[in-house]
Amino acid sequence: MSDTPVSAADAVATSSRATRILEASKLSKTYRRGPENVRAVADVSLSVDAGEIVALVGPSGSGKTTLLSVLAGWEHADAGEISWTGHPMADPGTLGWADMAIVPQTLGLVEELSVRENVELPLRLGESIDGGEARVEALLDELGLTRLAERLPAEISLGEQQRTALARALVLSPSVLMADEPTGHQDVEWTRGVLRVIEDAAADGIACLIATHHLALVRYAHRVLRIEDGRLTAVAPEDVVAAGDEL
């Protein structure tokens, strides 16, 4: 299987499905670990378009989570530029839930709120949309959470918590969904269910950037980006599936 280095020009040229939403050019992020510097993100360029599923793969510790955190504005890059709909952004962290929604590995559910209230949270924070409550009910149903809606996060399984975080991320139909291992705590049945919901989100025009170890998600992706030692390469989805590589 051949990996092709991703340049800034390649990143811009690769995706032409629809409106470019998120773009990054030459991002770098270095951490200090004891006496050494660890370059977690190394000169990374990428783009994600509306309606596109981009899978971000790579071994544990390769830089997937750090890259998502930088793109979300949770961490600041040492170098490089992030653009939103073609316009440079100093801090993506200022974007609202309706623009960029994130499912982190830590999930970030509010323990004092029920499953339903967690899903409703973006609506409660003032970013209401027409049909918001109906959207809540639809996502609860699609992700198998309706019967659990009045329970607290501590009263449901980790997989159910993860699906709650995904429902919360999608409730406002954001322009971009970024999810870090969204199938990591799902069984086979609910892995398929989560992937169906992500596929439906992309069909509705949401740009989806998904960090994953699951080949099943790669099969749904329009493009696959592999990160290793902080460096990004473009990989054909069919090559990843055929090789059966550990992601």
Key traits:
247 residues; alpha/beta; Rossmann fold; 7-stranded mixed beta sheet; 8 helices
Q: Number of DSSP strands?
A: 11
What composes the largest sheet?
7 strands, mixed
Low-confidence stretches: 1-17
Count of alpha/pi helices:
8
Structural class: alpha/beta
Reading off the top of the CATH hierarchy, the class of the domain at 4-109 and 175-236 is best stated as Alpha Beta
Q: What CATH architecture of the domain at 4-109 and 175-236 do you see?
A: 3-Layer(aba) Sandwich
- Taken in chain order, the helices and strands follow as EHEEEHEEEHHHEHEHEEH
Classify the oligomer: single chain
Mean residue pLDDT: 87
Question: Using only CA atoms, what is the Rg?
Answer: 18 Å
CATH superfamily placement of the domain at 4-109 and 175-236: P-loop containing nucleotide triphosphate hydrolases
Q: Portion of residues in helices?
A: 25-40%
Overall 3D shape = globular
Distance between the termini: 14 Å
Strand content: 25-35%
Strand order of the largest sheet: 1-11-10-4-9-8-7
The CATH topology of the domain at 4-109 and 175-236 is Rossmann fold
Could you characterize what this model shows?
The model is unreliable at 1-17 (pLDDT under 50). The protein has a seven-stranded mixed β-sheet, sandwiched between helices. The chain has a domain at 4-109 and 175-236: Rossmann fold. The protein is globular. It has eight helices and eleven strands. The protein is of the alpha/beta class and 247 residues long.
